[in-house]
Amino acid sequence: MARSTTSMKKKSYTRYSDTYRQEALALADRIGVAAAARELGIHASQLYQWRSKAQLQQDTSERERSLAEENARLKRQLAEANEELAITKKAAVYFAKSLK
């Protein structure tokens, strides 16, 4: 069997800006995904995909923020422990000298 050698058209992809995506998602929240997709002339699956990516990004940023807060708390705790240790060492040296 021979394959036909017709020229294949290259698919052109439209890249939408982040602001367009955000506005499209806001519209989808107001009037529904199907209606927003019809109004914008895009597939509803595209809006669902944008929504899931935005949710993932938001979850990631929340996770990073909580990790940063925990990191700051642990640094404060370590600094306090180091300060207490330094005080204890100084006291031990002082009392060791007074015993001699």
Automatic annotation (TrEMBL):
What keywords are assigned to this protein? Coiled coil, DNA recombination, DNA-binding, Transposition
Question: Which Gene3D superfamilies does the entry link to?
Answer: Homeodomain-like
Which function does this protein serve? Answer: Involved in the transposition of the insertion sequence IS3.
**Species per Swiss-Prot/TrEMBL record:** Vreelandella piezotolerans
Quote the protein name from its UniProt record.
Answer: Transposase
- Coiled-coil residue windows: 57-91
Q: Name one Pfam family in it.
A: HTH_Tnp_1
> Which protein family is named in the record?
Belongs to the transposase 8 family.
